[in-house]
């Protein structure tokens, strides 16, 4: 089997229980009297506004990816691009704001600062504007221009850094200097979301599958940036005692796969991920390796081929992280079909492709990055037409 067609995909290999660096909650500040009626009134109104956003936002759609009926396998994409801020990170930002408000960390007039590769910052800028506090996004200088435009559209400020590995320390420094709150999505994503239910993404998936022919999916495929989404889905599956398995695909230039495979909580990667929103240089505190069943290492060119196959199949452009997940989901479908198994598979449509027209949909950008999608596109064409994943 060629390298182009065989990303390494062993099943869970004992990363459970790996030690993690202790992360402490922000030290409470004394610039606000939390018994003051004006502060309590502001807090109640801020929480109401954030909760109202969830109440008036319809659930996202579950789209079907066309596969031959006779295969007996259904593939779905949970379309998170329809949130008000256009991505999966809208759920996370809402949870993080509620968590920070209820902990007393977000205060009137003080900025919220976040380390982000883009989409989380767009959503957090929206919620900061909603409750009337300033917002600063600390991001790699390579972040797509469309994402920085959206952050600024929602009233946020972009602080770009040349070395993506410095986003954490720069964010913490800006928070200390301004008296604001460093949201720290990479630490708090997995604990800010109620994984037992409360209309989280996992509960929504199962409710939307209730009338389908395979209502309990064989696999849910979720890429990892913070790791919060995969942790939420996996915990919900275990809590509800489902037999669904969780697969987390990892792009090139990310350490999650190696850290999960070896159980090394100190695994790291010095080259930044080309797939915005997923893949990290360090094992993030919100990535919970013991909760998931499988990981795949997915070449970036395969992710690019997959988003173009998605557009051909359903007429929708999506971001690169969607391609990473879709490539892995289709490989799992291929394994199920080869083994004569039936069932359903779910993956995520994380954000729209119009944010990346100058990157993932640009042949010039692909060439500049040295990415040849041809063998991966051929693999997908062969599989979708003949039902065989090429050796």
From TrEMBL:
Its cofactor is pyridoxal 5'-phosphate. The modification N6-(pyridoxal phosphate)lysine is found at residue 89. SUPFAM superfamilies: Tryptophan synthase beta subunit-like PLP-dependent enzymes. It holds the Pfam family PALP. InterPro entries: Cds1, Cys_Synth/Cystath_Beta-Synth, TrpB-like_PALP, TrpB-like_PALP_sf. Residues 59-351 form the Tryptophan synthase beta chain-like PALP domain. It comes from the Bacteria. Residues 1-36 are annotated as: Disordered. Keywords: Cytoplasm, Lyase, Pyridoxal phosphate. It catalyses: L-cysteine + H2O = hydrogen sulfide + pyruvate + NH4(+) + H(+). Its EC number is 4.4.1.1. A cysteine desulfhydrase that generates hydrogen sulfide, H(2)S. The H(2)S produced by this enzyme modulates the balance between respiration and glycolysis, and contributes to redox homeostasis. Probably eliminates toxic levels of Cys (which can induce oxidative stress). HAMAP family: Cds1. Belongs to the cysteine synthase/cystathionine beta-synthase family. Cds1 subfamily. This is L-cysteine desulfhydrase Cds1. It comes from Streptomyces ramulosus. The lineage of its organism: Bacteria, Bacillati, Actinomycetota, Actinomycetes, Kitasatosporales.
């Amino acid at each position: 089997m060629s390298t182009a067609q065989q990303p390494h995909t062993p099943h869970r290999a004992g990363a459970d229980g790996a030690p993690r660096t202790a992360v402490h909650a922000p030290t409470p500040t004394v610039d606000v009297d939390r018994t003051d009626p004006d502060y309590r009134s502001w807090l109640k109104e801020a929480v109401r506004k954030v909760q109202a956003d969830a109440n008036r936002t319809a659930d996202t759609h579950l789209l079907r990816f066309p596969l031959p009926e006779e295969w007996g396998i259904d593939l779905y994409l949970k379309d998170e691009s329809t949130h008000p801020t256009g991505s999966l990170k809208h759920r996370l930002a809402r949870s993080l704001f509620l968590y920070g408000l209820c902990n007393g960390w977000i205060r009137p007039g003080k900025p919220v600062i976040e380390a982000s590769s883009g989409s989380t910052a767009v959503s957090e800028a929206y919620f900061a504007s909603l409750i009337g506090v300033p917002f600063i996004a600390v991001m790699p200088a390579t972040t797509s221009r469309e994402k920085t435009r959206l952050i600024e559209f929602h009233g946020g400020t972009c602080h770009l850094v040349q070395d993506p590995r410095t986003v954490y320390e720069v964010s913490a420094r800006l928070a200390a200097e301004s008296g604001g709150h460093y949201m720290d999505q990479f630490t708090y994503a997995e604990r800010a979301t109620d994984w037992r239910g409360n209309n989280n993404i996992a509960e929504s998936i199962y409710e939307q599958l209730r009338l389908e022919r395979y209502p309990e999916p064989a696999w849910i495929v979720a890429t990892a940036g913070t790791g919060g989404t995969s942790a939420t889905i996996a915990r919900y599956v275990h809590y509800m005692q489902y037999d669904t398995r969780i697969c987390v695909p990892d792009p090139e230039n990310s350490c999650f796969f190696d850290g999960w495979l070896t159980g090394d909580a100190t695994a790291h990667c010095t080259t930044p991920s080309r797939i915005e929103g997923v893949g990290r240089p360090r094992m993030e505190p919100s990535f919970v390796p013991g909760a998931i069943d499988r990981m795949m290492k997915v070449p970036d060119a395969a992710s690019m081929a997959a988003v173009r196959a998605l557009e051909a199949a359903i007429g929708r452009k999506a971001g690169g992280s969607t391609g990473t997940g879709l490539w892995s989901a289709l490989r799992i479908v291929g394994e199920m079909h080869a083994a004569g198994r039936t069932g359903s598979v779910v993956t995520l449509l994380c954000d729209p492709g119009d944010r990346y027209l100058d990157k993932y949909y640009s042949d010039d950008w692909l060439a500049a990055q040295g990415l040849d999608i041809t063998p991966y596109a051929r693999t997908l064409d062969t599989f979708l037409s003949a039902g065989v994943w090429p050796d």
